[in-house]
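Batch manifest line 227
LIGAND: heme C
JOB: complex structure
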Amino acid sequence: MFTARNLGAVACFVAVSTMGSSIAVAFSGGPPPNLNGSTASGGATCAQCHQNSAGGAGSVQILGVPTLYEPGATYTLTVRIADPIQVGAGYQFSVEDATGAFIGTLGTLDTGSQLNAGFINHTSTGVATSLTNWVSLGNAAEYQFTWQAPATGAGDLTFWAIGNAIDDSFTNQGDLLYLTNKTAGAVAPVPTVSEWGLVVMLITLLTAGTIIMVRQRSRALLVRSRG
Ligand code: HEC
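JOB STATUS: finished
ARTIFACT:
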C-alpha cells in the first residue's frame, strides 16, 4: 500500500538513485553536504531538491555566536528555525573563512545532529524531535551543538545556516527554506605594538610617581626628626 510515508521513501530512493553514489547513504539520516548557501557550498542550497515555497513568514537564527571568538574556546551554538505554518524542521550549518575552508571543530551534543563532511546537520531523530517539540518551542525547532575555535586565531569567520521548515508530508514538496549567516572576528591574542607602548608608558609613570612619593616621605621624616 502506498501511504504518504511509503511515497516519501520512494521519492527518497529515486532522488538518491538519480543523484549518484556520492550521496547514496545520505538520505535516511540527513541531507548531502554543501547545501547551506555558504562559500564552501558555492551558494548551493537544499532548493536543489526541496521545492522552496518562497515567501515564508518564518526565520532561521544562529544563537550563541560571539562577536569575537577566543582561540581554543568551545561555544554552544543553537540553530533555531521558526515558522508560523509548518510543523518541524531540519538544518545544515558550517563555520568557514573567506575562502570557504572549514575552521575549528564542530561537535554533537545529542543524536539529533550529525557531522557531515565539514558541515553539521539534522538526523532523522532530530527531525522527529523537532516535530514533537515544535509547539512548545513556539512553532520552532532548536538544534544545539558545539564549535571549538581553532587554537590560533584564523581571522574573520562566517557561521552559515540553512533551515528547512517542513510540513511533515514525507516529501520534498511544501517546504520553506531560510538562510542566514553571522560573522565573528578573533580576539587579539597579545597587545598590539601601540598597546604595548601604552603599557610601557603607564609603568614608567607609576614608577616615577612612586619614587617621588618615597622621596617626599623620607624628606618629611628627616625634617620631623630634626625639628
Ligand atoms: C538530493 C535531493 C535532496 C536534497 C539535496 C535535500 N533533500 Fe531533504 N529530502 C529529500 C526528499 C526526497 C525528502 C522526502 C523523503 C524523506 O522524508 O526522506 C526529503 C526530506 C527532508 C526532510 C524531512 C525528513 C523526514 O524525516 O521527515 C527534511 C527535514 C529535509 N529533507 C531537510 C533537508 C535539508 C535541510 C536539506 C539541505 C541542507 C535537504 N533536505 C536537502 C530530498 C533532498
